[in-house]
Amino acid sequence: MRLKLNRPVSQLILIAYIAITFGFRFVYEVQLTSHYWLSLVTGVIFLSLPYALIKVGFLNPGWFWFEKEFKEESSEAKA
Q1: How many Å is the maximal CA-CA distance in the chain?
Q2: How far is CA 57 from the centre of its chain?
Q3: What is the chain's alpha carbon radius of gyration, rounded to the nearest angstrom?
Q4: Whole-number mean pLDDT of the chain?
Q5: CA distance 74 to 29
Q6: Is the pTM of this model over 0.90?
Q7: Of the candidates 57, 48, 52, 50, which has an alpha carbon nearest to the alpha carbon of residue 3?
Q8: What is the 3-state secondary structure (H, E, C) of 19-69?
Q9: Distance between terminal CA atoms of the chain?
């Protein structure tokens, strides 16, 4: 039995995670002005966690508010 969160909860978790990591990067990476490589590594690490959780199937975020537009475009392309 795999644990899988529903779509709205997954979206809220991802929005909160992105907001927290952006806040961290804007506040603390200002001090690392000459270490651009450290900024890149930090960004990759911060993005790898939600990517892994989505690939495993724990998070099921969808396309946030763009799902209706994607469904309309795909139905128009089929017609």
Answers
A1: 55
A2: 14
A3: 17
A4: 80
A5: 41
A6: no
A7: 57
A8: HHHHHHHHHHHHHCCCCHHHHHHHHHHHHHHHHHHHHHCCCCCCCHHHHHH
A9: 39
